[in-house]
Amino acid sequence: MPNPYSRSEHLRSLWPWLPLWTVVALLAIFAHGPMPLYSTRTLAVAWEMWSQHHWLVPYINGQPYSEKAPLLFWLIHAGWFVFGVSDVWPRVLEVIFGGAELVLISLIARRLFPNRAWMAKAAPWTLLALSYAFLFGLQVMYDVLLAVWALGALLCLAPGVRRDEPRWWLFGLCIGFGLLTKGPVMLLHVLFPWLLGPLWSDWARTHRARWYGRGVLAVLLGLAMLLAWALPAGFAGGEAYMHRLLFSQTAARVIHGVQTAEPLQSHARPVLWYVLMLPLLLFPFIGWPRAWVALATLRKPLEPGLRFALCWVVPTFIVFSLVRGKQLYYLLPELAGTMLLLCGAIAILRERRPQLANTGWLGTWPLGVGSLAFALLLFVLPNLVAGNHLHGEWPDACAPYSRYFAVVFLLLGLLLLLRGRGELRRLAVAGLVGTLALNALFTLTMWPRYELRPTSQLLGAAEQAGHAIGYLGNYEGQFHFQGRLVRPIEELSNNKQLAAFAQAHPDGLVVQHPQKLDPQALRYALLAQPFRSSWLVVWPATTLADLRSGATPPEPMQPPQVYSTDGGPSRRQP
Asked: Which residue ranges does the record annotate as region Disordered (predicted)?
């Protein structure tokens, strides 16, 4: 049992990075509403399960949803049961997951580098500084929770103070919870540190039979947890759902040419795509020379902690590069391993080459210069737009606010140009605050192009009034949660289906997603709102069917409600 002194030491070790990150994350995640289509899809599935009492099988738009396992939805439901249905609890959950990830990487660093106390303090600072990981953590998605289970499983493999053998049953439980979060991909995140255990663990090297034998049992425990849900869910969801759940939705992402009965979000990319995306994934450390010099000067013999990080990150990165389906957030757990490797390399550089480790030429000055240049661009942006030297969706929207944010990046640039002790912490604070500033700028300027509340509320009111709703194209659940819809939206792929829908539902509504507004929409539609670089238009079904067939519909009783792209109040077209 740890004494009160050791417990207080552990609490002090969380200061100040955990409270700082928590405050910034809460500010950022509640700056605007759920992001389409990431967060809105997840919330739609959770809402449909909740409203239709589908506790075993996830559903979206009236159909079983085989893309994901249900653990995140169950956690959302637990909060809704206590606090009521809203998007507040799911976002708080994401902040909790992100904080847990930081704590876990600190604990892993403490176990793997027992003689380097600095590692446990530095690792979470580096992880919270990653801009992409922070921004993606604002989405109500599965991957941050998956990263928590992956880090938890790897923590169970790492030797403790009193015990060198892994805690196998906890290792298996973490694998099982990861499988219940996002399916078999969980195994890829933890497989190689276990398989390559003798390369980094003295205990695994001297007890190979127990290491692999008990590891297999732990993996089987995790798979049993998945099957305990998947088999009953498969029978409940039907034969097609079971096949898609247990085979095709995973195989089609891994192997080129696997066909599925329904469209699948496979995200096919070339083999080198992750290599090309590394600057984005590793920003701001991509611009810190000391980090790359530290990695480049690593030499054998490597410490067990560094060998662990290499056994984790390198083979996992190669396998994910070879897998057909790729998204940046698939590598979220490995970003923690990369930061562990980076911190270890810097610690060794300080020990073995102190002069090189302390030279100002390897400091954060490239990032400081970049921040000052970005501040200058933001300051002159209104002049560039006003003088017709620069135009576009982003510059035009950002120009009214850009000079306020120029001051922020000017101060961050000056912070990064400072020299002396605390360089890593200054870089982390600058990266975190800079990312928060960019999120705030997006909220003030571009968020009205992503806010689906007007359309969702109109559709919700229409459904309550008994009107059927159709969607031209592929519907991805973006209106169900905000509109509190309880019936499926019918997907319409062509004019023939549109005409049949209008005939069957003469008082129904149809949502269209055109690139531009045309005069007919401004005359006959019910509502039009900007969405990203295009528009969403809600029509009376019979009106749109008449226009598509070449007929002239009757004049509407009132003009459409058109929302502006700058977030101003809605207006009626004259």
From this structure: 549-574
C-alpha distances in angstroms, 512 versus 60, 459, 504, 540? 20, 13, 18, 11
**Interatomic CA distance for residues 329 and 150, integer angstroms:** 14
CA distance 236 to 444: 45
- Give all strands (DSSP E) within 51-189, no chain letters: 59-60, 63-64
Report which DSSP code applies to 303.
P
Residue-wise DSSP of 63-96: EE--SS-SHHHHHHHHHHHHH-SSSHHHHHHHHH
In tens, the pLDDT along 167-214 reads 999 999 999 999 999 999 999 999 999 999 999 999 999 999 999 999
Q: Report in angstroms the alpha-carbon separations of 353 from 123, 188, 294, 363.
A: 21, 36, 10, 15
C-alpha 568, offset from chain centre: 29
Instruction: Decide if 121 contacts 128 (C-beta within 8 A).
Output: no
Tens digits of residue pLDDT in 37-72? 999 999 999 999 999 999 999 999 999 999 999 999
Q: What are the distances in angstroms from CA 492 to CA 51, 187, 474, 513, 534?
A: 25, 38, 8, 12, 19
Distance of alpha carbon 126 from alpha carbon 343, whole angstroms? 8
Is the pLDDT assigned to residue 259 strictly greater than 70? no
Cβ atoms < 10 Å from Cβ of 434 = 24
Burial per residue of 506-530, b for 16 or more beta-carbon CB atoms within 10 angstroms, e otherwise = eebbbbbeeeebeeebeebbbbbbb
Of 122, 120, 95, which Cα lies nearest the Cα of 110? 120
Place of tokens 């039009």: 528
Task: Judge whether 371 and 412 are in contact, CB under 8 Å.
Answer: yes
Question: Residue 141 to residues 97, 115, 131, 429, 553: CA-CA distances in angstroms?
Answer: 11, 37, 17, 25, 43
Of 328, 345, 273, the residue nearest 134 (C-alpha): 328
The reported pLDDT for the residue numbered 532 is 92
Question: Residue 563 burial by CB count (10 A; 0-12/13-18/19+): exposed, middle or buried?
Answer: buried
Q: Would you call 202 exposed, middle or buried from its count of C-beta atoms within 10 A (0-12, 13-18, 19+)? A: exposed
Mean pLDDT confidence for 129-147: 96
Amino acid at 505: H
Residue 261: per-residue pLDDT: 47
d(Cα 379, Cα 401) in Å, to the nearest integer? Answer: 9
Residue 264's pLDDT is what? 53
Comparing C-alpha atoms, which of 441, 393, 434 is closest to residue 415? 434
